[in-house]
Amino acid sequence: MPSSSEYQTVGTLEHAIAQVKCGDKEAYTFIIHRFQKQIYLYCYYLLGSKEEAEDAVQDIFIKGFQRIHLFEPQVSFSAWIYKIAYNHCLDILNRRSRLRKILFLLKRDQISDQELPYEDLIYQLLDKLSAEERHILLLRAVEEYSFDEISEIMDLKPSTIRKKYERLRKKLLRYQANPFTEEGGLHKHVIKPS
């Protein structure tokens, strides 16, 4: 049985997937190493927490291993594993949605008269987006997936993804143009340039 380092030199992703489907658990190590960083960053940007992202990545790769027999090569493996990540993160976001809204409101009230760090500003803008909008934004802008690939991951038509992305882009431009208005979402905060 080849080691994961041998897969990197003589094998391919397709070969590793075939080996895992045949029962070679060690071959899955190659798959994890190939996608771990990308999936971690995706989860981190969606969940906003290093610890939650690390836990999510482990769960996603476990689910991927358990479901690898369902993988069909008509879709790229990358899109397939991102679909698992998308659904897993969506579940996490849905579970914590109410608590997060309460905590956000409390935090906003506490810092309303203080300077906001740039990172907080980014998270505030992300909080203005729905979970679906965050997924589309991250897959398109950060991971640089095509609309067709995003449509595979999210089970939507490519034209629907294009329209949603265009609306999302316009929404973010409005926030950027009017950061101190109700529409921009930062009307209570004073932001000083660094």
Question: Topology, please?
Answer:
Elements: H1 4-10, H2 13-21, H3 27-47, H4 50-67, H5 77-110, H6 118-127, H7 131-142, H8 147-154, H9 158-177
Helix pairs in contact: 1-3, 2-3, 3-4, 3-5, 4-5, 5-8, 7-9, 8-9
Protein name: Sigma-70 family RNA polymerase sigma factor
Keywords: DNA-binding, Sigma factor, Transcription, Transcription regulation
Domain RNA polymerase sigma factor 70 region 4 type: 121-172
Termini gap? 55 Å
Which sequence of SSEs, written as H and E, runs from N to C? HHHHHHHHH
Number of strands: 0
The number of distinct helices, counting runs of at least 4 residues, comes to: 9
Helix content: over 70%
Radius of gyration: 20 Å
Largest sheet, strands/sense/barrel = none
Q: What's the mean pLDDT score?
A: 79
The computed structural class is: mainly alpha
Q: Could you list the spans in which at least 5 consecutive residues all have pLDDT below 50? A: 3-10, 184-194
Can you tell me the overall shape? globular
Strand content: under 5%
Structure description:
Residues 32-98 form the RNA polymerase sigma-70 region domain. InterPro entries: RNA_pol_sigma-70-like (IPR039425), RNA_pol_sigma-70_dom (IPR014284), RNA_pol_sigma70_r2 (IPR007627), RNA_pol_sigma70_r4_t2 (IPR013249), RNA_pol_sigma_r2 (IPR013325), RNA_pol_sigma_r3/r4-like (IPR013324), WH-like_DNA-bd_sf (IPR036388). GO terms for molecular function: DNA binding; sigma factor activity. One of its GO terms (biological process) is DNA-templated transcription initiation. It contains nine helices and no strands. The protein has 194 residues and is mostly helical. The chain is globular and about 55 Å long. The relative contact order is 0.09.
